Amino acid sequence: MFREYAYFSSYSDTMVAHARNIAERLIEKRKLGPNSLVAEIASNDGYLLQWYHKQDVPVLGIEPALNIAKVAVEKRGVRTIAEFFGRDIASQLAAAGERADVIHANNVLAHVPDLNGVVAGFQTMLKPRGIVVVEAPYLKDLLDHVEFDTIYHEHLCYFSLTALDKLFRRHGLEIFDVERLPIHGGSLRIFACLAGAETISDAVKSLLAQEATWALKPATYADFGQRVIDLRDKLVEFLTQLKSEGKRIAVYGASAKGSTLMNFFRIDGRLLDYVVDRSAVKQGRYTPGTRLRIYDPSRLEYDRPDYCLLLTWNFAEEILSQQKKYRDQGGKFIIPIPHVRVA
Fold first, then answer.
1. Strands of 275-276's sheet in order across
2. What's the pLDDT score for residue 5?
3. DSSP state, residue 201
C-alpha cells in the first residue's frame, strides 16, 4: 500500500509551516550543525527535512513510497532511502555510522504494524544524547471531538501518552517531554531519549495522571460510539434538507478520512455532486465506494455550488482562506466535525 502513495505533505501550507517551526526550534535548541544528522521516518516529499538541509544540517529521509522519495531527492535535495524503517534498516545504518542526533516520526506510528520493531530501531539508531520526536493524533482529542473519520484502514493504533510511554520504555527509551498540538484535530508531540539521558518533565507526569482517569474505562469508548451515531443523523438530515430545497453540494477533500465519513454515513451522489482536491495526483480519479469524480478546487469558482462539504476539516482555516473568492461569491462550507456547522 505504501510503495506508491497519493498523499504529498507539501500540498498543505499548514504542514510545511508546522515542519519549519519545529526544525528551526531544534536546530537552535540542540545546537545542530554540519556534524549532526537528522533523520525522519516516513519522510514523505522532504517537507520537513528540507528546513534542516537549507541550514546545512545533514539529513536522511527513510520513505517507502518510491514515487514520493523520488520527489524528495529530485525537487528538494533531501537524501532519501526508499525503504520501510525497522530493526534491520536501523542496524544497517548504525553499522555504517549513520547515528542520529534527532529522529523525527510524524504521523507514521499509527500506520505501523510492527511498532516494536520501529521503536527498537529508534533506540539502535540514536546517538547517546540523541532524541526522538514523534507526532501522532491524540486519542483524547479523537474522543472529545468525535473524530471517528480518522479510524480507517491505514491507521492501526490510536495513541494515548500512557500507551506510548509503555511502548518506548519496553525498548530502553523514555519520554521526557510532551506537548499537545492543534494540528490534525489534536496531536501529541513527544520527545524521547535513551533511558536516563534527560530529566522527565512535569508535563509528562501531569498528562499521565490525567489519563489515569479515563483511558482504561470502557464507558469512555461506548459514549464516543453513540456520539458518532448522533453526528451521522444530524449531518444526513441537514444535507437531505438542503437537497430537497434544490441546493447543489460539492465536497472539498478527497482524503482517507473523507472516504471513511462518506461511506459510513452513506453519503454519495444522491446528495453530493463532485469532489475537489488540491492534490494533482488525485484529480481525475474517483472517491472509493462513493464514486464521485475529483476535480481541481478552481471548479468551485466557476461552477459555484451552493455548499461545499469540507471533509479535510483538520485544515479548515487554511482552506477557508484559500477559497475566499468562492465564499465571496456566496458559497458556503459545511464543516462536519466536531459538530455540523456552516462557515
1. 294-295, 275-276, 249-252, 307-310, 332-335, 341-342
2. 65
3. P
Q: How many CB atoms lie within 10 A of CB 16?
A: 16
In the chain, domain spans? 9-217, 219-342
CA 219, 221, 227, 232 dihedral sign is negative
C-alpha–C-alpha distance, residues 335 and 243, integer Å: 17
Place of cell 461545499: 308
Distance CA 229, CA 223 (A): 10
Is pTM beyond 0.70? Reply is yes
CATH number of the domain at 219-342, please?
3.40.50.720
Q: Is residue 92 within a helix (H) or strand (E), and if so which, with residue range? A: helix 87-95
> Is domain 9-217 annotated with CATH 3.40.50.150?
yes
pLDDT one-digit tens code per residue, 72-129: 889 898 999 999 999 999 999 999 999 999 999 999 999 999 999 999 999 999 999 9
